[in-house]
């Protein structure tokens, strides 16, 4: 059977599917920083509407089922309006390591270049010890900017140091 892959803007009506995707991804404590109990419908609806209103949110569907999602949005502070932050990308565990994350992230950055000439920076934080995601983000053009010493207390109660990374829009044209 042929596989139908699509990358499209998310809609509010996708919120239940996105909630279920995040619940599944949060089973792995090494992935997203938020704990499974903190993946609430309110959290999901908030980032969907923030991203729809001030940033960008895309979903990747396989045979019309959402298996991946990426979003980032503005901070709501005028002086930071050329930044998109709180970037999160997730791929359903069953489909990780098959190139879908890269496809989705590349589509996201392409749309920033095409649709957001007023965005200079896209920012994210990643776990310092997660060499796989650091290499992944570097391969997409993100640069490591600094360490945030002991910012995370993980599920076992140990401190972790995330890294701040940023991607610069080559098509930035200011306001
Ligand atoms: C991080 C994540 C989004 C990457 O998506 P993915 O579909 O699994 O990644 P891809 O298959 O597109 O691979 C991207 C790169 O990582 C590498 N990679 C993928 N899986 C890997 C693994 N298990 N070990 C080492 N490298 C791996 C690939 O080789 C690829 O590098 P390349 O472009 O040089 O070949 C996905 O694994 C995920 O959702 N993880 C859990 C949630 C999370 O950590 N999100 C990020 C925090 S916001």
Relevant terms:
175 residues; alpha+beta; Aminopeptidase; seven-stranded mixed beta sheet; two-stranded antiparallel ribbon; 30% strand; binds coenzyme A
In words, what does this structure look like?
This protein is of the alpha+beta class and 175 residues long. The protein has one domain (5-168): Aminopeptidase, CATH 3.40.630. The chain contains 4 helices and 9 strands. The chain has helices at 15-25, 41-54, 100-115, 131-139; strands at 5-9, 56-62, 65-73, 83-91, 121-127, 143-147, 152-153, 159-160, 162-168. Strands 1-2-3-4-5-9-6 form a 7-stranded mixed β-sheet, with helices on both faces. A two-stranded antiparallel sheet has the order 7-8. β2 (56-62) and β3 form a beta hairpin. α1 crosses α2 (41-54). It is globular. It binds coenzyme A (COA). Coenzyme A binds next to β4, α3 and α4.
